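step: validate -> pass
step: tokenize input -> pass
step: predict -> running
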Amino acid sequence: MRIERLPAVRKIPITLAAFGLAAYAGFALAATEGDAERGKEVANLCIACHQADGSGMHIEGGESWPRLAGLNATYFAKQIHDFKTGTRVNATMTPFVNMLDDQKIADVAAYYSQLEPTAGQGGANADEATLKRGQQLAERGDWSQYIVSCKSCHGPANRGAGDVFPGIAGQHAGYIETQLKAWKEGTRKNDPQELMGSIARRMSDEDIHAVAVWLANQSAGSK
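step: predict -> pass
step: emit ->
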């Protein structure tokens, strides 16, 4: 009897993922093919914040710049296009993305996608209870709060699922926390079918912090 009662709940993440894939389908089909060698030159614009190896930067209590190394190229290009069109807003990014045409965006996305992912930073001093809660949210979710697990969309070990859902394991804690709060507050809205917004609004700030520090301490895998 128990098996018959659970499918409706377990199918929710799969349904959410399917909606997300459909939302990205048009962008993926229209994407320009990138060249990683050309992209290496374009990446010189990114080094100041994202470092020469694409590792980004985490400052405890301050701004964090995401790791770009190892991100899926199509997902990466989609984010840059969103910055250009204003669908996603960041005052620091705007002047840089406005220097890039479609080909340069595709090239720099291809370049970063083939770099070896680096380790995440942040949360090294998190207590055991915080990490345990973060692991629960990332791996199992919390159905009492209707919070879907991260891995339901972001794939096994949260290392990414196709072109739509980026790898978040090994991403800097400060960046993950900032983005979740942005979705929660409605200042970031470029997620497919508002999947992230609907989930983030069900999370407390404590839960956001917990899952951010846990994910930062996980391996991003290797290329």
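step: describe -> The chain has a mean pLDDT of 90.
step: cleanup -> pass
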